[in-house]
C-alpha cells in the first residue's frame, strides 16, 4: 500500500501541469462554496443590522406595562433582553403645516433605549440628561417647523383627551381634530442636542398624531443600574421592547400569547397567513385581543431574518437560492474535477495495466485514484476556503467603498463557523464523487486492454467516410480532424458535455437571479421619486407652466407633471389570464366596465417616456401600459402572491371607446367637495359600478393606441390596480370638439407631479418659497410629500440584492470558464504526442491550423446547439416550479445571458485552441513522442 501511495505521489510530481490544473479546479470549487456561505451569512447579518437600525433591536413591543410589572419581563426566561421607554405626553406645535399631526410626542429612555431603539442620528448627539432632547428630521420636512441643534424649546406637555368618549387618547391613535384637547399640561424647557431620522413604525405609527421627541430618563437608568426599585413608581406606565431568546423565537406565538393572556392557538392562527380562521374564531380572537393584558407590535422582519428554523419569509427565498446555487456549483465542480481525473486515467491506463499485470488488485488501483484525490484535496480545500473568505471580504469592502454616501447602510462582513464547516464538507463530497467514478473505471480495465490502450478508440469503417465538403474547405487537416473526432468520440463527448453544462448553468442561474429581481420588484418597488406633489384647484391647471416651475428649481434630476382623467370602458378586450382574474373578482365580469386612467403629461416628460418605452410614433395617440401586478390566490401555497400578467389584446393602431358621464351643475356641486380631485367611481380594483355609470349623461371618446409597453413613467408604479394610458396635452385636446373638455375636467381630473431631486430637503424648501405668497399660484393648493428616506431605503435594498445576485452570476461564470479552460487545455496537452506524430509524417503548419480550427467549430456548434435550448428549457421549468410554489411571473427567455454565453463560448474555445496550437508548434517532435508522462 505504501508503494502505491509513493507511486501516486511521484506521478503527481511528474505531471505537474495536470496536477496544478486539478488543484486549481478544487480550489475554485471550494472557494465558491465558502464564498457562497460567507456571502449568505454576511447578507443575513447585514439585513439583521439594517432592520435593527430601521425598526429597533427588539422582537415584540408591549405597551401599557406598569412599572411594577417590569420584573416579569426581566425575569422571563424566554426574553433575552429588554429596553424601555416612558411616554411623557403630548405638546401642541405652533406653526405645524400638517393638520393631522399637530403635536410633539415626548418620549423618555435611557442608554439602552438609545442604543437599541431606532434612533438614527443625522446631526448632533443623543440626550444625556432630562433637560436635553432629540427631535426628528420629518418635523422639518413634513411639519415645516425648522428647529436646529442648539435651540431651546418650551413645550406644554399633557395628555390627549377625547371629549366625546371622555377618555385619554393613546399615542398611536390618529388626531381627532375638534374632538380632542390637551389636559394636565406641564411646562418643560429643553435644549435640542440632536436631530434623528423618523423612528420606525414600531415607535411612531404612520397615523400617529405626534412627532417623536426623545429625552433622557433618570428613572429608567436607575432601574437598569439596580439603584432603584420598580415598586417605587408602581403606577408609572412603560412601553417594553423585548428581545426573545433563539429558542423562544421558534415558538414565538405561544410565548407572546402567554405574556398578553390570550388563547395560544387562536393567536398562532391569526399570525399564519396559510391558515384561514372561521368567523366564530375571528370574533373570539378580536374579543380576546380587546381584553389582552398589553397592546403589542411585532417586529416581523427582524424575527424573519433571525429565525433560522423554521425558515420563514425573506430568508426562505435566500436559503433556497443559496441551496440551488450550491447544488449547481457542486454538480459543475464534480464534472470539472471528474474530467481531470478521467483524462489522467485515460493517459495512465497503460500504467494501471502494468501494475495489474504484476499483481496489483482492483482495490489497490481504486485506492491509488482515491489517494490522489485526497492529496489534491489536502492542498486545494484549505487554500480554497481561505480564498473564498478573502474574496467575500474584498467584495464587501469594495461595495462599501463604492457606495459610500448613497447606500443607506453599510454591508457587514460576517463569517459563520457552522457554515464554513458545511462548505468544507461539501467540498470533500465534491472531490469524493469526482474521483469515485474514475477509480471504478480504472479498476475495471484488464491488463491486456490497458497495455494496448485501444478501448478509447472505436473504429467502424462505414462511419469514417468524410464528407467531401470538409476536404474542400478545410483541406487534409480538416479530414484528419473529422476522422479523429469520429474515432475518439469519448474524449470529444467529454469536452462537449463540459461546455454544455457550463452554458446551461450560466443561462439558468442568470434567469434565476433575474426572476428573483422581478419577484422582489413586484413586492417592494413602489417609490422611484423623492418629492411628490398633489395639486387641487377650482380651475384648469396649465401643466406646461407647472413643468417650467419644477424644472427651474435647481437640483431636479428628473420630473414629471401629469393630469389624470378617469374613464371607463365597456367590455374591454381582456387577455384570457386577466379576464379570468377579473372573473374571480366580479360574478358578472362579462358586464363589468373597467376603469381606464388617461394621464396627460407635460411634453418633455411624454417624449422622454415614449423614447424609454421604445414607442416611435407616440404622437399618433396614447401609450397603453399593458402589464400589471395583482394579488392572486395560489392554491398550491394556499396564500395570496404577487402575479404579473398582460391585461389586454390591444395593439398599436387599435381604438378604445372610453366612456364618461356628464353631470349638471347641481349634481356636480352635491357630489364633489371643494378640492376633491378624485372621482367617486374609483375603487382599488379599478371596478366602476353600473349605478354610478348610469347617473348622468353618458358620452364616449375614441382613443387610438400609439403603442403598447410594460414600462411606466416615474410616480406611477403604485397605480397597478388601474389601466394606464399616457398622452401629451396636444393629442388629448384633439380628442375633443366644441369645448367639451370642460365637461370632464370639472369632475374627473386630478393633478400631480413627481420629482427626483438631488437634495430633497433643499428642493422642497425652494419649491415652497417659489409658490407661497406668489399670486400666480394663489388659487392652487399644493400638498408636498418628501419621500427621500423611503426612496433611499428601496434603492439600498435593490443595490444590496444586485451586489449578491450579480456576484453569484460572476462566480458561476468563473467556474464555467475554468472548467472549459481546464478541459480544452488539458485535452490539447494530452494530445501533444498525437499532434507530434502527425507533424512527423509531413503535416504542415497550415494543415495543422485547419485541423484545430475545424475542431473548434465542431465543439462550439455542437455544445451551443445542445446547451442553449437545454438552458432555455430548464429556466422555463424553473419558472413553472416557482410559480407553483410561491410566485407568479410571465416567462421571458434570458436573451442577454444567451447572447453573452454564445459569444464567450466561441471566443474562449478559439482563444484556448489558438494558444495551445501556438505552444505545441514550439515543442520538439522527437522529445514529445518519447515523453511517457503525458
From TrEMBL:
Transmembrane found in the keyword field: yes
Highest taxon of the lineage: Bacteria
Topological category with respect to the lipid bilayer: Multi-pass membrane protein
Cellular component aspect of the GO annotation: plasma membrane
Chain intervals for the UniProt region annotation (Disordered): 667-689
Compositional bias annotation for Acidic residues: 667-681
Domain MacB-like periplasmic core: 19-217
ABC3 transporter permease C-terminal domain residues: 324-447, 808-924
Keyword set, alphabetical order: Cell membrane, Membrane, Transmembrane, Transmembrane helix
Protein name: ABC transporter permease
Source organism per UniProt: Agathobacter rectalis
Amino acid at each position: 500500500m505504501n508503494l502505491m501511495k509513493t507511486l501516486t505521489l511521484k506521478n503527481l510530481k511528474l505531471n505537474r501541469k495536470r496536477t496544478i490544473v486539478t488543484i486549481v479546479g478544487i480550489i475554485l470549487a471550494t472557494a465558491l462554496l465558502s464564498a457562497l456561505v460567507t456571502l449568505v451569512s454576511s447578507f443575513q447579518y447585514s439585513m439583521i443590522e439594517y432592520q435593527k437600525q430601521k425598526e429597533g433591536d427588539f422582537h415584540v413591543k408591549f405597551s401599557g406595562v406598569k412599572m411594577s410589572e417590569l420584573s416579569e419581563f426581566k425575569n422571563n426566561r424566554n426574553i433575552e433582553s429588554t429596553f424601555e421607554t416612558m411616554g411623557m405626553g403630548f405638546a401642541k406645535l405652533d406653526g405645524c403645516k400638517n393638520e393631522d399631526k399637530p403635536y410633539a410626542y415626548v418620549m423618555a429612555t435611557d442608554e439602552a433605549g438609545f442604543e437599541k431603539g431606532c434612533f438614527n442620528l443625522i446631526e448632533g448627539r443623543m440626550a444625556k440628561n432630562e433637560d436635553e432632547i432629540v427631535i426628528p428630521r420629518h418635523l422639518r420636512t413634513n411639519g415645516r417647523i425648522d428647529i436646529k441643534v442648539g435651540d431651546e424649546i418650551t413645550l406644554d406637555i399633557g395628555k390627549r383627551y377625547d371629549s366625546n368618549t371622555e377618555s385619554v387618547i393613546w399615542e398611536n391613535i390618529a388626531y381627532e381634530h375638534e374632538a380632542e384637547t390637551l389636559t394636565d399640561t406641564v411646562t418643560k424647557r429643553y435644549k435640542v442636542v440632536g436631530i434623528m431620522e423618523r423612528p420606525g413604525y414600531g415607535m411612531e405609527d404612520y397615523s400617529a398624531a405626534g412627532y417623536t421627541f426623545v429625552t433622557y430618563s433618570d428613572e429608567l437608568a436607575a432601574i437598569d443600574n439596580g439603584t432603584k426599585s420598580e415598586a417605587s413608581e408602581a403606577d408609572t406606565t412603560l412601553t417594553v421592547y423585548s428581545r426573545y431568546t433563539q429558542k423562544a423565537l421558534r415558538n414565538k406565538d405561544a410565548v407572546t400569547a402567554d405574556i398578553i393572556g390570550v388563547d395560544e392557538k387562536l393567536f398562532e392562527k391569526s399570525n399564519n397567513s396559510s391558515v384561514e380562521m372561521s368567523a366564530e374564531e375571528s370574533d373570539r380572537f378580536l374579543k380576546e385581543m380587546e381584553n389582552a393584558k398589553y397592546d403589542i407590535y411585532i417586529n416581523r422582519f427582524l424575527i424573519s431574518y433571525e429565525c433560522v428554523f423554521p425558515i420563514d419569509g425573506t430568508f426562505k427565498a435566500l436559503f433556497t437560492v443559496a441551496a440551488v446555487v450550491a447544488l449547481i456549483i457542486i454538480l459543475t465542480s464534480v464534472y470539472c474535477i471528474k474530467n481531470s481525473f478521467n483524462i489522467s486515467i485515460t493517459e495512465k491506463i497503460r500504467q494501471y495495466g502494468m501494475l495489474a499485470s504484476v499483481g496489483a488488485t482492483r482495490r489497490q488501483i481504486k485506492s491509488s485514484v482515491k489517494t490522489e484525490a485526497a492529496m489534491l484535496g489536502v492542498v486545494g480545500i484549505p487554500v480554497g476556503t481561505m480564498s473564498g473568505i478573502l474574496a467575500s471580504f474584498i467584495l464587501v469592502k469594495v461595495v462599501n467603498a463604492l457606495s459610500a454616501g448613497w447606500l443607506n447602510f453599510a454591508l457587514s462582513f460576517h463569517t459563520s463557523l457552522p457554515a464554513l464547516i458545511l462548505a468544507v464538507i461539501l467540498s470533500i463530497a465534491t472531490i469524493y464523487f469526482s474521483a469515485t467514478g474514475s477509480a471504478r473505471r480504472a479498476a475495471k480495465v484488464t491488463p491486456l486492454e490497458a497495455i494496448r490502450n485501444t478501448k478509447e478508440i472505436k473504429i467502424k469503417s462505414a462511419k469514417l467516410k468524410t464528407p467531401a465538403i470538409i476536404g474542400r474547405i478545410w483541406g487534409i487537416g480538416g479530414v484528419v480532424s473529422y476522422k479523429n473526432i469520429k474515432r475518439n468520440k469519448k474524449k470529444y463527448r467529454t469536452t462537449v458535455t463540459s461546455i454544455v453544462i457550463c452554458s446551461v448553468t450560466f443561462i439558468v442561474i442568470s434567469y434565476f437571479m433575474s426572476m428573483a429581481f422581478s419577484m422582489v420588484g413586484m413586492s417592494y418597488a413602489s417609490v422611484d421619486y423623492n418629492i411628490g406633489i398633489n395639486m387641487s384647484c377650482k380651475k384648469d391647471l396649465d401643466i406646461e407652466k407647472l413643468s417650467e416651475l419644477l424644472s427651474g428649481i435647481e437640483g431636479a434630476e428628473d420630473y414629471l407633471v401629469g393630469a389624470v382623467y378617469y374613464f371607463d370602458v365597456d367590455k374591454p378586450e381582456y387577455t384570457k389570464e386577466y379576464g379570468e382574474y377579473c372573473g374571480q373578482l366580479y360574478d358578472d365580469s362579462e358586464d363589468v366596465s373597467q376603469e381606464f386612467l388617461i394621464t396627460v403629461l407635460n411634453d418633455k416628460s411624454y417624449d422622454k417616456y415614449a423614447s424609454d418605452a421604445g414607442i416611435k410614433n407616440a404622437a399618433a395617440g396614447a401609450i397603453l401600459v399593458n402589464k400589471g401586478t395583482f394579488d392572486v390566490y395560489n392554491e398550491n401555497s394556499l396564500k395570496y402572491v404577487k402575479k404579473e400578467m398582460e391585461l389586454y389584446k390591444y395593439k398599436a393602431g387599435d381604438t378604445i371607446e372610453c366612456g364618461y358621464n356628464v353631470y349638471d351643475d347641481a349634481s356636480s356641486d352635491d357630489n364633489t367637495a371643494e378640492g376633491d380631485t378624485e372621482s367617486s367611481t374609483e375603487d382599488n380594483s379599478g371596478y366602476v359600478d353600473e349605478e354610478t355609470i348610469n347617473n348622468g349623461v353618458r358620452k364616449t371618446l375614441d382613443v387610438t393606441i400609439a403603442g403598447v409597453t410594460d414600462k411606466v413613467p416615474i410616480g406611477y408604479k403604485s397605480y397597478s390596480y388601474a389601466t394606464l394610458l399616457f398622452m401629451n396635452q396636444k393629442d388629448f385636446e384633439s380628442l375633443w370638439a366644441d369645448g367639451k373638455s370642460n365637461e370632464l375636467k370639472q369632475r374627473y381630473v386630478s393633478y400631480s407631479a413627481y420629482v427626483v431631486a438631488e437634495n430633497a430637503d433643499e428642493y422642497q424648501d425652494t419649491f415652497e418659497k417659489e409658490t407661497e405668497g406668489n399670486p400666480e399660484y394663489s388659487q392652487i393648493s399644493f400638498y408636498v410629500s418628501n419621500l427621500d428616506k423611503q426612496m433611499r431605503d428601496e434603492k439600498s435594498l435593490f443595490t444590496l440584492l444586485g451586489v449578491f445576485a450579480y456576484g453569484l452570476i460572476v462566480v458561476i461564470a468563473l467556474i464555467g470558464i475554468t472548467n472549459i479552460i481546464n478541459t480544452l487545455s488539458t485535452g490539447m496537452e494530452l494530445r501533444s504526442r498525437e499532434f507530434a506524430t502527425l507533424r512527423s509524417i509531413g503535416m504542415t503548419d497550415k494543415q495543422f491550423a485547419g485541423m484545430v480550427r475545424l475542431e473548434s467549430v465542431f465543439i462550439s456548434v455542437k455544445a451551443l446547439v445542445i446547451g442553449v435550448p437545454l438552458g432555455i428549457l430548464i429556466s422555463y421549468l424553473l419558472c413553472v416550479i416557482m410559480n407553483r410554489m410561491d410566485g407568479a411571473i410571465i416567462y421571458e427567455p434570458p436573451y442577454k445571458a444567451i447572447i453573452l454565453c454564445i459569444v464567450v463560448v466561441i471566443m474562449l474555445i478559439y482563444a484556448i485552441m489558438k494558444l495551445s496550437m501556438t505552444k505545441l508548434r514550439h515543442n520538439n517532435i522527437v522529445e514529445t513522442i518519447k515523453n511517457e508522462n503525458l
